[in-house]
Amino acid sequence: MLSLVASTFILPAQAELTEQQQKIQQQILSFAKQHLHDQQPAVFVLSGDAGSGKSAVLSAVFSELQQQAHQSDAPLAGTKNYLLVNHNEMLKIYWEIAQQQSFLHKKDFQKPTPFINRCEKLQQAADIVFVDEAQLLLSQADRFNHFLADNQLDELLKWSKVLVLVLDFKQVVKLKSYWSEQMLRHHLAGYHVKFVHLKQQLRLKSPAVAAWLDQLIMGKLLPLPTVHDYELKIFPDGQPLFNWIKQKDQQFGLSRLLATTDFPFRVFSKEPWYVEAGTLKLPWDRFNYQDRPWASQPQTLHEVGSIYTIQGFDLNYAGVILGPSISYDESINQIVVDPNKFEDQTALQKRHQADLTDLTAARSQLIKNVVNILLKRGRYGLGIYAVDPALRYRLIELETKKEIK
């Protein structure tokens, strides 16, 4: 039976990092030792696609670092280090990790804003600061999150001796936390920086499916790959997709329905808001007040997850509903994106900074990033239903041709 210990990047007890992950782990530790006492902060940037194992590396490095910090004879003994992540659900996973190791504590894992505000108040810097999902760092002031400075990266540079950023620019999902490689390099100019890219795909078990999804996200619909190591299915209606997910969850566990944020919702609402996909009508995920991540709670099988509950997590099987903002133009044989149909308009609000010359293109890219995140959650299988009729028919046509071969 296929089953994960949890819907997270935490490796099972018997598992090990890959050779490339182990190499990067040692690079980060060596970098920290080498630059801890420099006159200005040094920055290690680890990038990689969704499912490449970035968080697993980060978790392993931080655990080893904190173990050394509590050993009097270790090279990094006595250092004050923190791991930050601007994502509530991922923070809960790191808190779970803290409960499993005596040298880790809940306070070691924080969100960026409270960390920055505390350093500012105490006028006290940390030694080594890790940032997971660093593409979620705010790049402008945000009163809702009690962050009043220009951007969180510049503030973290003020309060860190060594800064380790783990990111994927294809997982940027809000304009208020918009980052590009060009912007990142601009803010890091003048600092000692090392860039490393993690080139592997550990989540999706089929390279052919991963390549097909990359083309889809760019707008190109290619023939579906005929593979035996991954289950890729297209559905004509949301209800059979949901039935498939329920079956997979019963068989293998950790199978959930997900959707692009194309359906009405209100954060913190007491009343449920619904996703409608053909004959299917299910409630959106609710704000998760529990310590357990959304996907690991059994009742969430009867909800629809979003990027806010699933980003950074693994599933065995994922069913993805592509909402109205994702459509198909037969005349050009392209998938097209319409930001005006995207319900998560707060994610697309205009930036205060004038650092984006083409806001329309940026908004479209953010929606593509949402699609990228959702489609790459399932380790062993993916089911897709498209609300747009033209896109749905084209996907079904491609699957039919695949089956004829």
Automatic annotation (TrEMBL):
Transmembrane segments: none annotated. Residues 40-177 form the AAA+ ATPase domain. It comes from the Bacteria. It holds the Pfam family SLFN-g3_helicase. SUPFAM superfamilies: P-loop containing nucleoside triphosphate hydrolases (SSF52540). InterPro entries: AAA+_ATPase, P-loop_NTPase, SLFN_3-like_DNA/RNA_helicase. This is DNA replication initiation protein.
